[in-house]
Amino acid sequence: MVSFADRHIGITSQAQRRMLDALGVASDLEDWSPVEALMRQAVPASIFTPSGDSGSGDSGIPSAASEAETLAELRDLASRNTVNRAMIGLGYYGTFTPSVIQRNVLENPSWYTAYTPYQPEISQGRLEALINFQTMVSDLTGLTTANSSMLDESTAVAEGMLLARRASKAKSDVFVVDADALPQTKALLATRAAAVGIELLERDLAGGEELPEALFGVFVQYPGASGRVWDPSAVIDAAHVAGGIAVVAADLLALTLLRSPGSLGADVAVGTTQRFGVPMGFGGPHAGYMAVRAGLERQLPGRLVGVSVDAEGRPAYRLALQTREQHIRREKATSNICTAQVLLAVMASMYAVYHGPDGLRTIARNVALRASLLRDWLVDAGAEVVHESFFDTVTVRTANAASIVSRAHDEFGILLRLADAGTVGISVDETTTFTDLHRVALLFGGKQERTFGWADAGSPGALPGELLRQDEYLTHPVFHVHRSETAMMRYLKQLADRDYALDRGMIPLGSCTMKLNAATEMAAITWPEFAQLHPFAPREDVEGSLAMIDQLEAWLAEVTGYDAVSLQPNAGSQGELAGLLAIRGFHHANGQEHRTVCLIPSSAHGTNAASAVLAGMKVVVVATDELGNVDLDDLRAKIAQHAESLAALMITYPSTHGVYEEQVVQITSAVHDAGGQVYVDGANLNALLGYARFGDLGGDVSHLNLHKTFAIPHGGGGPGIGPVAAKAHLAPYLPGHPQEQKDVHAGGYVFEGGPVSGAPYGSAGVLPISWAYVRMMGADGLREATAAAVLSANYIAARLADHFPVLYTGEQGRVAHECILDLRPLKSTTGITVDDVAKRLIDFGFHAPTMSFPVPGTLMVEPTESEDLGELERFIEAMIMIKAEADAVAAGRWPADDNPLVNAPHTAASLISGEWAHAYTREEAAYPVPALVATKYWPPVRRIDQAYGDRNLVCACPPIEAFA
What we know:
Layout (H helix, E strand, L loop, with lengths): L3 H5 L4 H11 L10 H9 L24 H13 L5 E2 L12 H8 L2 H4 L11 H18 L3 E2 L6 H15 L6 E5 L4 H13 L3 E5 L13 E6 L10 H9 L3 E6 L17 E5 L15 E5 L12 E5 L5 E5 L6 H4 L12 H39 L3 E2 L7 E5 L3 H12 L1 E2 L1 E4 L2 E5 L6 H10 L41 H13 L21 H4 L5 H4 L11 H18 L3 E3 L5 H18 L7 E5 L4 H9 L3 E5 L9 H10 L4 E7 L11 H10 L3 E5 L19 E3 L20 E3 L40 H34 L18 E4 L1 H7 L3 H10 L6 E2 L6 E4 L7 H22 L17 H5 L9 H5 L5 H4 L10 H6 L13
Parallel strand pairs: 1-13, 3-4, 3-5, 5-6, 6-7, 17-18, 17-19, 19-20
Antiparallel strand pairs: 2-8, 7-8, 9-10, 11-12, 12-15, 14-15, 16-22, 21-22, 23-25, 24-25
Cofactor: pyridoxal 5'-phosphate
EC number: 1.4.4.2
Family: Belongs to the GcvP family.
């Protein structure tokens, strides 16, 4: 029977033999297999784990299960969860995901296997969806510009706080927080503020408590966590008088009825789009949002989609203002967020496209009316309702609050919020029924039977008249023309067809690991027992998910050589921050607050430096040598220079240059000897898994990218998950959460650090993917996947070495899981640039490798273990032909300004429209290899002018006439 590992790993044993022969690896070895021999050449002996010691014995990782067995085990875990009616609120609500969106987006590999749209010509579909998202957010918030999503609401508020500090001209370090803010947001703000020296002051803003004289910003929850709706414009005006920036967290569904934050004077609006068709998923993933007034566009963190023009002057979408990316700004970056929640943002935007403004308004009115009806029934029962004005949440004062919440759960399967000993919060959403409302009223002594007629659909419920929205929103045609399911299905298909995703072919991106996301791994994420859980549901309702989390924590700890794992960080950048905050907490607990210096090699991922700054550390850059390794002499000099203040070293292993550094143990020992901690960036764990462990080579803490090594799909640029793993001495400082259900984590550890995401276990809704991946691969399969990835990278490097220099290799001439092809000699001899090569690869039917990182003018290629030899050969053939085309330009066959490379990519329209006046033929442009005739992917636009777009920033849906 074929194992799952055999299905996941693309290279057959016969293909491996051919590849190893090409690499000159002997096939008659007595002690180990040829693949093992290759790994011994690549991985330093000082950290190498021989076969049989990879953790499959007493490690706790069970032997590999079949796909059927894995699904059965997941069904068992799911059966231990109970999906009760969640009326807790606090930013998480029941919602109906339209089936056309679930089937054609969430469950569609054309959407979930796409990569970040760094190659915009082949990303026009998801970029249009993100433009829709930005327009939706901008319209509803009443602010000029929105980004293409944040990680969740609480982290978005923290980013809003940091933006306010940057943009405000006030000298104060005080940030005022609404007392009626979401409790998880307050906790996260405390974590983030303490690290960067911000003083938080909590004020009852709705109750009229005055602002302090000095502040740089104020944060308002609108509506409040208690449900209260009030007019914050006076508070916003007062903040402006003090020189501060006003940040408002607003519920987008409420904003279809309420005045927008922009109309109230807010500078920044943040929040979540979860209730726009995205399941609660026990906390995520969901798309947060941020929008800003005019003048703050260039302060926006995260990603921003804008409109530019292509080579023929036609409008085209692309990521804007890319100079804000961390790999360029590094320690000067204003945010460490390098990702988004694209897949979830697409779902939320399509929810708005499907329903349109009228449909959203109707949903919101139904919610408001049900909440108002509940208030009436509670008052009729003699209950004390706290607020007169509210949208969806009714707060009730009662002496027996705990008893009511308990009875609601036990008698009716309804989850209410115990706000405090004398207060119950009850939230209504689009899934709430009249039966739910009646049962809640019964708990407060309401009537056993009721009769009532139709509510007035035009009524605003309990919203104050002076705050009712008067202006129009979602006026662009895209929100009005896809009402039928047929139209919606076709729109989603049209957008998907404009994109290049893993379901079309290889995406050989170095440092990003675009591997197979198997269908069996994905199956459970839409099961109601996982998808419909509220993140603050009581422990007895979520035992299955907690058991899965325990198992995954233990497995990840085992394969990395650490003692404890927190799954809370909902992106790799947040995992970095969490790990550095753990180091900070450890030093502070030992009375060494002065340890603030973080050493970071010049080759490191850009988020490393940004995360260190946000953890309150000072970045000191360590040089790398000509082989791409950490310069040991410079490292020792920097350690000596900063010995007293050294907090940590951050390194990536294998290195960002794609090689296994031979001296890694010496590096980590030198840091430990000076009293520092070692942070090993886990971005390249897929080149190490089963052959060495971070904890064994001297790491104290690491983040892992589940969207890279452990098969969670990239989703067009998100979701990602970045768990943080640590040794026992750092475990107490890993991120905890005030509302988490677990008392202890795997291994018996209690995490006492502050939260770094809004939900206790981050994006728990997609954890079944990685759980299933490890369960089906087993320890041996994980090791085989590592070897296959390293073999494929070395095969590509060897086959292309005569055409493009391979920039870095290890001491035995081997690379790790990726190789860097140096295109600078090509440019110097032919004039052809790395951009030309990347765009020409589109004509060959490929997504380009990573461009100009970590070295300008290079391509970083990572084939992953999932690609078969045929696809590797197709890529190799394309690169060799591109080199020949460049040589033809140098030889004068084609002019330097008119050849297939500088004009790439070629659209179908460019080949058939008008006279063909180029120096090369249509066939050479469109079909450089014969196989493309049957499988051609046609890009929808020509090469996009990035500079034009940054000069003419347009971040919302352009008018239809622009595409005429």
